[in-house]
Amino acid sequence: MSDSSNRPVYVVGHKNPDTDAICAAIAQAEFLSQVEGTKAEPIRCGEIPERTQWVLTQAGVQAPELVMDVRTKAEEICHRGALHVCEADTFLSAYNIMREHEVRAVPVVGTCGQVVGVLRYLDLLELVMPQKTGTSAVKEFIASTRKILEVIDGESIGADLPEGYEEEELVFFVGASSEEFVRLRLDRGSEQGVSGRQVVITGDRPELQMTAIEHGVKALVVTGGFQVEQKVIELALKKGVIVMCCTYDTATTVQLVRCSRMVKNAVERGCHYVEASEAVSELRARLSHNNQDLFPVVEDGTRKLIGVLTNSDLMAPAKTKVVMVDHNEFSQAVKGIEESNIIEVIDHHRLGGDVVSSEPIRFLNEPVGSSCTLIARKFRQSGRTPSKGAALCMCAGLISDTLNLTSPTTTDLDGEMLGWLSGIAGIEPAQFTADFFAVGSLLLTAEAMDAITTDQKHFEENSLTISQIEEISLEAFDERRDDLEAALVVLMKNLDCEVGAVVVTDITKKFSKLIVKGPPKVLENIEWTKVDDNVWDAEGVVSRKKQILPGMCRAIYNSVGGCLT
To answer: Does 436 have pLDDT greater than 90?
Structure first.
């Protein structure tokens, strides 16, 4: 089974991650790895904005892997490198594997590596146990002559073996009686029309060997390591009879011949299998009442075997360990967060109130301008210096969230950390700010829905969604207003929100325009300067956390007779 201790701790920001969320994940993963010796990996649960990608390029840092679900998956707990057999394997090889490793079932793969079914021990035994026990029935078996040769580890010296491994109905005949009695039985086989299906097994008896070949049997197996006379070989070639020689005694050879049938005849092909990315919580519900011994785990979409699971493996698997950065609410978190083991939260937003853990965790939440500020302080307090790439990422997260220390969310600690980090990263903050915000205008280039979901947060308790688009000019606002408003209506429907806002912020003038949709009473209570039915001007408003969210909450509460001021 995969060792849960080797699975990394995931460090992840919120859905629709902004620069602070992506960069905080990168920096915290480096802190955990370098300072605390924890195997940590930054991930993301949304697309990377163009400006953030520019930051990663400048920093020479690889983008975090996209992980949309942190629930424990089948591939993370399955027994990798598990035993398996191939369709063309014989009873003997499969039996030896299962007996040696004391397993009752193994997955079976086809020629291209795809899982075709499961082979159970009891099904395997049916290959060598005749369904009937009459005199003739016990002598009948199904096999390929090539597989017979493999099982007895023999040498073929007569007619050529067939090209493939196609199996056929055969009848074995042990030539241990007198030559006269053997001839009588071979004559009877000819009368019954089975000579061409007979496999005669005998020792060092040249005359009996010649008699069998003259009757046109399917194959002659000579046991005991005895040499076959040239005249026997020549007659076999003439009659088209396969001759095999092996070193086993006759009794052993008879048993081995029975064991030459391929396991494809006993495979349970209607078995349940599991795709690698399936969540264990869903598998428990789907497979809990299934009496299958084991479940092959396959690559998504290919059915190529990567491991196996049993029902007991699904009972209490290790949970994915997660560090949440730049958010503390399940509604904004990656899918499956409720089933993960949250070990730490680092944030600078309000408390959402729905994060729960099974044991005490580290929870760092302070009213600063950026999550990267808090992680930078952790580095400095530990006496460690972050890498140049991580330092640049933290600078970007800090600059983007505080608008280079001009946002009302800015604190003295933000300025202190930016000064320290910019020296490590080798950047000049003012120039970096100008370059950063010059990248990728969503207002000018993005589809309306992409523009409003790139930096969007959903506040479930207020049935509210707020999207923010930061620009260096609002010249294109009037041209895009209708598209943005239409996209907002669709987004609210998808999220089942009663109130939605798109905030387009001019970071150079510290000015925002808001498009708001919602009940008339909410719109009547919006405190900013009304332009028309759905647009407001907000002088000096740039922070969603400290200005826009509180203002929208006041409008919602006041609309129902509240007194939130």
So the answer is: yes
Please give the Cα distance from 54 to 60 (Å, whole number): 10
Cα distance between residue 298 and residue 499, in whole Å: 44
Residue 533's Cβ-count burial label (10 Å; 0-12, 13-18, 19+) is exposed
φ/ψ of residue 202, rounded to 5: -155, 170
Domain of 290, CATH number, reads 3.10.580.10
Q: How many domains does the chain have?
A: 4
**Whole-angstrom distance, CA of residue 296 vs CA of residue 543:** 51
Q: What is the pTM of this model?
A: 0.73
**Which strand (E) or helix (H) includes residue 55?**
helix 50-59
Give the β-pairing of 242-245 and 274-275. Answer: unpaired
Where would I find the beta strands (DSSP E) of 159-313?
168-174, 198-202, 219-222, 242-245, 274-275, 295-298, 305-309
- On whether the CB atoms of residues 337 and 330 are closer than 8 A, the answer is yes
Domain assignment of residue 191, given as a range: 137-260
Determine contact, residues 60/365, Cβ cutoff 8 Å.
Answer: no
User: In this structure, are 330 and 415 located in the same domain?
Assistant: yes
Task: Evaluate whether residue 565 is within a structural domain.
Answer: no
pLDDT of residue 2: 46
CATH number of the domain enclosing 230: 3.40.1390.20
Q: d(Cα 415, Cα 404) in Å, to the nearest integer?
A: 9
On average, the pLDDT of the chain sits at 91
Q: Each residue of 122-148: pLDDT tens digit?
A: 888 877 765 555 445 457 888 899 999
Sheet bearing 464-471, strands edge to edge: 456-459, 464-471, 499-506, 511-517, 535-539, 529-532
**Residue 130 has what pLDDT?**
56
Q: What is the mean pLDDT of residues 192-208?
A: 89
